[in-house]
Amino acid sequence: MQKDSNHLQIIERRHFIRHPLSLPLAYKVIKPGLSKGHEDMRSETINVSIGGLLFPAKHPVEPNSMIAIKMPFEDKIFNIKAKVIRCVNNPETKFYDIAVSFFRINEAFKTKMIEQIYLIAEYRNLLTLQSGKEVSLEEASRKWIKRYSERFKRLYW
pTM of this prediction? Predict the structure, then answer.
């Protein structure tokens, strides 16, 4: 907040719309000059945007630190580099809320792809439940893309 002649003005830090989404992740701080860092810490996203993401952590991470994030899906691991923008102690959860900004635009693209893959997997489970037979990920992908890809593009990009 910033004072402006007897008025309080809230400065909006967000540049992109955030979408609440819980995706698993592992992260570690990248220390310059070290080939081996600490063990990966596990968490999950609170929300995701095209510019970055927010996740809870047991331990604080210094703002401006670079972190390596791994986001798994089935047999794949997506690797993302990000910069810590803010780390705030959340008294309700007793965790630190860590906001990160993607290092490159392709990092944002990776995250959006992961999000879309998770949505397709949920759609696959729904189709399987509705039909009473196992629906392949490939079949669910084709149906999801045909049905929802334009909507996804408008909502998230």
Answer: 0.66
